[in-house]
């Protein structure tokens, strides 16, 4: 992580704690999560940048890896043809079903572990 040379963090820290500090420091420079070509901003200014940023990834980018990146205007057009947007109801139903099934299986495994421990 890069720190801003001017107007940066006012804290003095030990070199051994530098990495941890930089990872959490509000003065660390971070990339815009909407678009890699946006200029970097200090972490403390990221929320404001995101409010005014013209770039926007597809809302299905993080979960389903939709590759679209563009402006907010382009996003509204993209959503009309986005395969993930079209099937989000089905995808959500499957996710809920599998999440419930996974929770049931975890519960059964814990029960079996307890049974084994009691032997």
Describe the 3D structure:
The strands form 2 sheets. A 3-stranded antiparallel sheet has the order 1-2-3, with helices on one face. With 119 residues, the protein is mostly helical. It has 6 helices and 5 strands. The protein has helices spanning 18-24, 46-52, 61-64, 72-81, 83-86, 88-118; strands spanning 2-3, 28-30, 41-42, 55-57, 69-71. The longest helix is centred in the C-terminal third of the chain and has 31 residues, at 88-118.
Short descriptors:
119 residues, flat, mainly alpha, two-stranded antiparallel ribbon, 6 helices, single chain
Q: Rg to the nearest angstrom?
A: 22 Å
Q: Name the shape in a single word.
A: flat
Largest sheet, in brief, is: 3 strands, antiparallel
User: What strand line-up does the widest sheet have?
Assistant: 1-2-3
Task: List the total number of helices.
Answer: 6
Structural class: mainly alpha
Average pLDDT figure: 87
Q: Mind sketching the topology for me?
A:
Elements: E1 2-3, H1 18-24, E2 28-30, E3 41-42, H2 46-52, E4 55-57, H3 61-64, E5 69-71, H4 72-81, H5 83-86, H6 88-118
Antiparallel strand pairs: 1-2, 2-3, 4-5
What is the structure about, briefly put?
The protein has 119 residues and is mainly α. Helix content is 53%, strand content 11%.
